[in-house]
Structures are given as structure tokens and as C-alpha cells.
Amino acid sequence: MMKLIISLALLSQPTWALDIPLQLDQWQTLTYKSIPPNTTTQLEDSLVIDVSASASPLIYVLDSTQTIKYITVTGNAKGLPAIPNGLKQGDKGADDFPFRIGLVLAGDQTLGFAQKLIAADWIKTLFKLAPKGSGIDHVKFLNLKNSDASTSWQSRSHPSSKGLFQETIVGSIEDKQTFNLNHQLDEAAEVIALWISIDGDDTNSTYQLILNSISLN
User: Fold this and answer.
1) What is the pLDDT of residue 118?
2) Which of 16, 54, 78, 109 could covalently link to 36 via disulfide, CB atoms 3.0 to 4.6 Å apart?
3) What's the pLDDT score for residue 33?
4) Has residue 9 got a pLDDT over 50?
């Protein structure tokens, strides 16, 4: 009986891991017209993101579409978004999270010619991530909140994303501590890229986040 239990336990674990490189030259930086960008630097095999009332997503395109069930991220926090009194993290005026990692899911949505003319730059960038001849479905964000912050929602469609950004709060980060995001998706997802968002523009916050590892299973 013990052998059977051990075998079943092993079967429940990820059978392979895709370690995402944390070399800055392998990531794309997306900037917004009206928001100052973060400052991102390389520290050995880690990425250091300095936030100063700023936001600029980091995007990593996978070599090919991958079927993902688990995601693991490790890092360190030096400061956190400053949530104004009376507001809950994620609400208007406090919509900054110390870490969001988005899985860009393969799908059949594309931008037509007329849509490309009027779409915001970040939307056009998002759709360009899809391999030629295909499209996207949406971005599934896994959020880490401040450890001492309250929220008014657990999952939502981001109100400014036209349904393209779906968010779920899956854990928290404590200031001056190492964090570990270990998350199993409800269903395996076909992923074409990663979209990391670390921001302080909504709360005029200054802090630093260090990413040490990202692994997909």
C-alpha cells in the first residue's frame, strides 16, 4: 500500500520544468505614453525593478506555445505600494500590486485593420505576441498583494482592459522578505508569453522588487 501511495504522489507532481531566463536583454519592456517607466536592471541572474510612481510591463515570449499547469516565482521585496487610507488594494486610486504575472493565453482573437488604427499601444503589443496566423484569448494574471492590505475582490476582469486582463489574487508579499508564488492552475493553459506588471503609478509609490526565478511546469 505504501508503494502505491508514493507512486500516486509522484504522479501528481510536475514532470518537467521550463526555467525562464532572467536576462534583461531577453525581455521586452512596454511603456505607456502618460506613465513614467520603471527602472529595470540586471543583478547577476536576477532582475531588479525600481518603481517610482511608475509602470512598465516586462514581456517574455516563449519559443513556442507551451501547455502550463504550474507556475513558480521567487523574489524579494524592498517596500510595497502605499495604499491610501480608506481604500482597498486593487480599487480605483489603489490599483497597484507589487507583483502580477500574466499568462498570455493562445486563442483566436485578432485585431482587424480598423481596430489597429484606434487601439491603444498596449493592446497592439499584446496581439503582436501571438504567432503569425493565430491570436490570443486573454491574459490570466496571478496577483500578489501587500501582506497587510485588504481587497474588495478575489478575481475580476480588469475594468480598463476590455476583458483582455483577468486577475486573481493568489497570495501576498511582505516588505523586506523573500516571497514565493507557487500556483497550480485549475486547468492547463496554452501559453504563448509572460506579462509581468509591477506598478506604483496609481498610488505614487516608490519601492523595489527583485525577481530571482520563474519556472513553468
Assistant:
1) 66
2) 54
3) 87
4) no
SS (H, E, C) the chain: CHHHHHHHHHHCCCCCCEECCCCHHHCEECCECCECCCEEEEECCEEEEEEECCCCCEEEEEEEEEEEEEEEEEEEEECCCCCCCCCCCCCCCCCCCCEEEEEEEEECECCCHHHHHHCCHHHHHHHHCCCCCCEEEEEEEEEEEECCCCCCCCEEECCCCCCCEEEEEEEEECCCCEEEEEEEEEEEEEEEEEEEECCCCCCCCEEEEEEEEEEEC
Name beta bridge partners: 167: 141, 156
Average pLDDT over residues 169-188: 96
Tens digit of each residue's pLDDT (9 = 90 or more) over 36-89: 999 999 999 999 999 999 999 999 999 999 999 999 999 999 999 999 999 999
- Torsion, Cα 124 53 40 60, to 10 degrees, reads -30
The three cell numbers locating residue 139? 491574459
> What cell was used for 145?
498583494
- Other CB atoms within a 10 A radius of the CB of residue 140 amount to 19
Grid cell, residue 36, equals 513614467
Closest CA to 105 of 165, 190, 162, 163: 190
